[in-house]
């Protein structure tokens, strides 16, 4: 049976996107296939982590009563789809009783196909060249083709390096698939890295391209919640 390196698991409040405020069980996987400039999450295999089989993780979560009174189980990282063989064994253990919320960088469409039937909500990042160092727009579109009939929203993290062309392209992709677009400013020391005027400018520009766009910062950081 496949094993995965789990950085941490905990119950907290979802702080991003349209599901902000819901109580979730977070499972953070180690490892990512990207290296984005703004990333502030420790998903490395250095330091402490758990190496578990699917049934071992399920039993731990069950014994610690972490499935109680939660909205959904958030698979986060890093990039959870790097552990798709593990997830193919783990997700059926949930028995379809708790919604699965996948947080992903939306660059592994073939991996997504393998667990799509078990996923209820997809929080999909779009990575711009200014943040990832790569032009990933084409692979993002392939990813969205796979999940276009699912409950999906797009999250776009930006700082003052974002360009008008990048923003327009993100909006075009969101509009093509009719997914809600969430703009999220990079945070530092629990505050947005850009000022309010810049955030408003980015929002106004995005809305001029695509009306189903909202500006939502990382609320859990504003509230200083883990």
Structure in words:
The chain contains 8 helices and 11 strands. By secondary structure, the chain is of the alpha/beta class. The protein has one domain (about 5-220): TIM Barrel (Alpha-Beta Barrel). A 9-stranded mixed beta sheet has the order 3-1-2-4-5-6-7-8-11. Strands 9-10 form a two-stranded antiparallel ribbon. Helix 1 (about 55-65) crosses helix 2, helix 5 (about 135-145) packs parallel to helix 6 (about 165-175) and helix 6 crosses helix 7. The longest helix has 14 residues, at about 165-175. The mean pLDDT is about 95.
Query: Could you name the CATH topology?
Result: TIM Barrel
Instruction: Summarize the biggest pleated sheet.
Output: 9 strands, mixed
In helices, the fraction of residues equals: 25-40%
Q: Given this structure, which CATH class is correct?
A: Alpha Beta
Shape annotation: globular
Q: What's the helix count?
A: 8
Q: Could you give the distance between the termini?
A: 32 Å
Kindly state the number of beta strands. Answer: 11
Strand content is: 15-25%
Order of helices and strands: EEEHEHEHEHHEHEEEHEH
Query: Superfamily at the CATH H level?
Result: Aldolase class I
CATH architecture: Alpha-Beta Barrel
The domain count comes to 1
Low-pLDDT segments, ≥5 res: none
Which strand order spans the largest sheet, edge to edge or round the barrel? Answer: 3-1-2-4-5-6-7-8-11
CA-based gyration radius: 17 Å
Mean pLDDT: 93
Q: Label the structural class.
A: alpha/beta
Summarize the structure.
The chain is α/β, with parallel strands linked by helices. It has eight helices and eleven strands. The model has no long low-confidence stretch (mean pLDDT 93).
């Amino acid at each position: 049976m496949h094993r995965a390196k789990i950085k941490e698991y905990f119950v907290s409040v979802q702080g991003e996107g349209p599901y902000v405020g819901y109580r979730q069980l977070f499972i953070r996987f180690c490892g990512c296939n990207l290296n984005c400039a703004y990333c502030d999450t420790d998903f490395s295999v250095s330091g402490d982590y758990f190496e578990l089989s699917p049934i071992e993780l399920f039993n731990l979560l069950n014994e610690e009563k972490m499935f109680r009174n939660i909205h959904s189980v958030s698979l986060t990282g890093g990039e959870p789809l790097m552990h798709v063989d593990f997830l193919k064994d783990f997700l059926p253990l949930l028995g379809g009783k708790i919604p699965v919320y996948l947080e992903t960088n939306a660059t592994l469409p073939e991996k997504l196909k393998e667990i799509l039937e078990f996923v209820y909500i997809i929080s999909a990042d779009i990575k711009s060249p200014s943040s990832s160092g790569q032009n990933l727009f084409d692979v993002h579109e392939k990813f969205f083709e796979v999940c276009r009939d699912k409950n999906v929203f797009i999250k776009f993290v930006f700082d003052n390096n974002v360009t008008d062309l990048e923003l327009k392209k993100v909006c075009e992709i969101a509009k093509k698939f009719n997914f809600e677009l969430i703009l999220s400013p990079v945070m530092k020391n629990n505050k947005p890295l850009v000022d309010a005027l810049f955030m408003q400018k980015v929002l106004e520009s995005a809305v001029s391209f695509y009306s189903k766009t909202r500006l939502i910062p990382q609320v859990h950081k504003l509230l200083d919640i883990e």
